[in-house]
Structures are given as structure tokens and as C-alpha cells.
Design brief:
Blueprint: H1 3-11, H2 18-26, H3 34-47, E1 51-55, H4 61-68, E2 74-79, H5 82-94, E3 101-105, E4 117-122, H6 129-136, E5 140-149, H7 165-184, E6 189-191, E7 197-201
Parallel strand pairs: 1-2, 1-4, 2-3, 4-5
Antiparallel strand pairs: 5-7, 6-7
Helix pairs in contact: 1-3
Enzyme class: transferase
Protein name: O-methyltransferase
Keywords: Methyltransferase, S-adenosyl-L-methionine, Transferase
């Protein structure tokens, strides 16, 4: 067992939303890794986040977990895939949190919001990380926090021998975003949990 595997095991908690998790696994719906999820929820709890904006709802898995941290939390979440959006609505309703969710069906590149938030969670198309960051971070409060998932691309971020042009293009875009954050936000943390978690204070 490697150190990484040992820590991942310790950071993996009992699944609170087993039905949603199993659906994701059985239908190959990408969801946040369990150890990264633990870090995200701990961050929300420690910093007492109350108004969360999520880019990329999928089937509502991460949204359910973020809402479970505290009953005072509200979630605005954007999803462009209608089928996923419908499933997320069902899951939020089934687990009794729909009244705390503002689900938006639309392309996050085009959606316009006027509300303010204290946490921005970016977990959508990875090649658009910088676009989403620049578009939505101005909506954060002065003590706002941005969290970005999948900054390691399952190891492809350091792979120099990719053969697919699409994978090379995606890798380069995520690299550019990571480097942009590194150069402009000295307090940002790049964490080797899950598929890589990036935490930025505004």
C-alpha cells in the first residue's frame, strides 16, 4: 500500500447517499472522489459557508453532500445537460433538500446571476475552468472561497506522451489554468486528494 492509498482509505467516509452514488457508478457519471469530498465538506464546515454556487450539478451528488454539512446552507447549481438536471431534481427532492436548492438548467458559460455567494465550486468541463473562474468569482463575498475539482486529470496533467489531440488540448488548458492561479494567487493550495483539488481564497 502506498502513502496515497493509505490516506485515501482514511479519508473515505461512510457513504450518506448510497443510492445516488451507486447510480453514478453504474451509469458512469463522473462524481467527486470520496477523499476530495471529505476535504471539501470539512472546508465548508470550518469556514462556515452558507451560500454555495456550484458549476456542474450532474446528478446532484456533490450538491447533496455540501448541503448535508449544515441545514443553513443553500445551493445554487448550474447544469447544461437536461437529463442530468432532471435526475438531480429528483435526488434533491428525494433527500429532502429541494427547498434549499436553486437548480438552473443552462450553459454556465451563458448564465447570468446577480446573487452573491461565499463558496464557488467548479466541477464542470475542465477546459473552461478559467472562464468559469473569471465569470463567477466576482459574485463571491470578500471572504469567498473557490474550489476546483479534477486539476490533475487522472494523471494526464503530467503526461507528455498523450496521443489524442483532444486529450492534449484539455491537458494544456488545465495546465494553463493551474499556472495562472499559481502565478496570481500565492495563497492557493493545490492538493493531491482525489483527482486534485484546488482551493483559492478570493
Amino acid at each position: 500500500m502506498t502513502i496515497e492509498e493509505y490516506l485515501k482509505q482514511l479519508n473515505t467516509k461512510t457513504e450518506s447517499f448510497q443510492d445516488v452514488y451507486e447510480y453514478a457508478v453504474n451509469n458512469r457519471v463522473p462524481i467527486i472522489d470520496s477523499d476530495a469530498l471529505t476535504v471539501l465538506k470539512q472546508l465548508i464546515q470550518l469556514t462556515r459557508r452558507k451560500k454555495i454556487l456550484e458549476i456542474g450539478t450532474a446528478i446532484g451528488y456533490s450538491g447533496l453532500h455540501m448541503l448535508s454539512v449544515n441545514k443553513d446552507i443553500t445551493l445554487t447549481t448550474i447544469e447544461k445537460d437536461e437529463a442530468s438536471y432532471d435526475i438531480s431534481k429528483e435526488n434533491f427532492l428525494k433527500h429532502g433538500v429541494s427547498e434549499r436548492v436553486n437548480g438552473i438548467l443552462g450553459d454556465a458559460k451563458e448564465v447570468e446571476l446577480e446573487d452573491t455567494f461565499d463558496l464557488l465550486f467548479i466541477d464542470a468541463s475542465k477546459g473552461n475552468n478559467k472562464l468559469f473562474f473569471e465569470k463567477y468569482s466576482p459574485l463571491l463575498t470578500d471572504d469567498g472561497i473557490i474550489v476546483v475539482d479534477n486539476i490533475l486529470l487522472r494523471g494526464q496533467i503530467v503526461e507528455e506522451n498523450l496521443h489524442s489531440k483532444n486529450k492534449i488540448k484539455l491537458r494544456d488548458k488545465v495546465r494553463q489554468f493551474n499556472e495562472y492561479i499559481y502565478e496570481n494567487y500565492p495563497s492557493a493550495s493545490f492538493l493531491n486528494v482525489g483527482d486534485g483539488l484546488l482551493i483559492i481564497s478570493k
